[in-house]
Amino acid sequence: MPYELIPGLEGVPIAESAISFVDGQNGILEYRGIRIEELADHSTFEETAYLLLKGVLPNPEELDSFKYDLTHHRRLKYKIIDLIKCLPEHGHPMDALQAAVAALGMFYPAKDVTNEEENYLSCVRLIAKLPTVIAAFERLRIGDDHLLPRDDLGYAANFLYMLTGEVPNPVSTKALDVCLILHGDHTMNASTFSGRVTGSTLADPYTVISSAVGTLTGPLHGGANERVLQMLREIGSVENVQSYIEGKLDSKERIMGFGHRVYKTKDPRATILQHMAAELIEVHGPTELYDIAVKVDEIVTERLGPKGIYANVDFYSGIVYDQLSIPQDAFTPIFAIARVAGWLAHWLEQLIGNRIFRPTQIYTGQHNVPYLPIEQRD
Ligand code: CMC
User: Crossing angle of helices 45-54/331-351, nearest 10°?
Assistant: First the structure.
């Protein structure tokens, strides 16, 4: 039977899913039917993670119990800390995260994926421990001691505390919490797909998540947010924006933080993050980086908007993280510590009526090639 190749599987559904929904023409994103703007305004990351995993918003007792579980599984075994200490300090934190997640699977074997109680505990452990891994790596690599998590702080505030050693103010805490909510899930993107493929083999959840973390590292996916800030720094001033962008576009280079396979209008997450960046600047004082970003947004939208290319989630997130004093190479890991909730929701969904992914290919090689002995080869 002849097959038609669809590069990048564009427009090919690979699963039925009830977790998140994107309307790319109208710039709408929903988790379990709830608009992202409502969640950003009223929810917390912990509550949103529950919503993604369980399908409904928790009642007060359910939320308390979930938060208790998340808070009491944040610590890392000393051997995981030892492992993190052994990693090269110049290595990328995403690689450290992938290694640590794979190692966690050896400490908490969860091979029986039919055991719902064990699956819940694995979800809690992964969501709770990922921020601790990132904060520990960031501190240990510069010679500082890692900090133990603080049970009196919520998820976002505790992460900032473990990273910087200071308890953040409420504006910074809210900003990070919103960023985590916005990155919680995003339908069938590359890392989610890769997690689902791994999950379809009935591999354990730590392997599923380490596979998804690896996929997120690429510059066309989660890695774009770091490159946005790099680009804004390279531009250096508002006056340079026009010539810089035109130069890039004339030489057919991509502008990081723009374009999306699904959105053909401005990504709703970029709009929320732009407001968030502006709010933080009101508190922390103006930065030229923000002004440069606004100018880049204006010029790229003017040039590429007619082709359906607008700012995506990665464009303003870097400025928000920069305002929170988060080091540049921790940007993609923050994406990961939020997206782990979505990846796990997809893993649980994949297990229902699971069928292993086994696509096909269109073979373009030769047949019946004779084996040439080595002495006869050129
Ligand atoms: N800058 C300049 N041109 C672009 C850009 C961009 N950022 N994005 C797409 N184009 C052009 C591309 O050159 C092509 O032009 P032409 O038709 O003339 O050859 C056209 O738009 C279609 O590009 P495509 O690669 O077929 O589109 P896609 O849907 O496969 O790509 C994308 C989506 C995200 C990979 C792409 O827009 C891109 O590389 N963006 C920059 C990286 C980035 O910001 N990634 C973060 C994505 S959102 C968060 C996440 O998923 O992690």
Answer: 30
Which residue has a Cα nearest atom 35 of ligand 1?
A: 220
Residue 6 located in a structural domain: no
- One digit per residue, the tens of pLDDT, for the chain of length 378 reads 678 999 999 999 999 999 999 999 999 999 999 999 999 999 999 999 999 999 999 999 999 999 999 999 999 999 999 999 999 999 999 999 999 999 999 999 888 999 999 999 999 999 999 999 999 999 999 999 999 999 999 999 999 999 999 999 999 999 999 999 999 999 999 999 999 999 999 999 999 999 999 999 998 888 888 899 999 999 999 999 999 999 999 999 999 999 998 899 989 999 999 999 999 998 888 889 999 999 999 999 999 999 999 999 999 998 999 999 999 999 999 999 999 999 999 999 999 999 999 999 999 999 999 999 999 999
Residues lining ligand 1, Cβ inside 6 A? 8, 189, 220-222, 224, 254-261, 304, 307, 309, 312-314
- CA angle (230, 236, 241) in 5-degree steps: 95
Distance of alpha carbon 231 from alpha carbon 225, whole angstroms: 10
Number of domains in the chain: 2
For position 266, which CATH number holds?
Answer: 1.10.230.10
pTM above 0.90, yes or no: yes
Range of the domain at 250: 224-323
Of 261, 269, 273, 332, the one to substitute when testing ligand 1's pocket (max ligand atoms within 8 A of C-beta) is 261
Are 192 and 340 in contact by the 8 Å Cβ rule? The answer is no
Q: How much distance in Å is there from the Cα of 230 to the middle of ligand 1?
A: 18
Residue 186 designated active-site: no
Q: Active-site residue 152, yes or no?
A: no
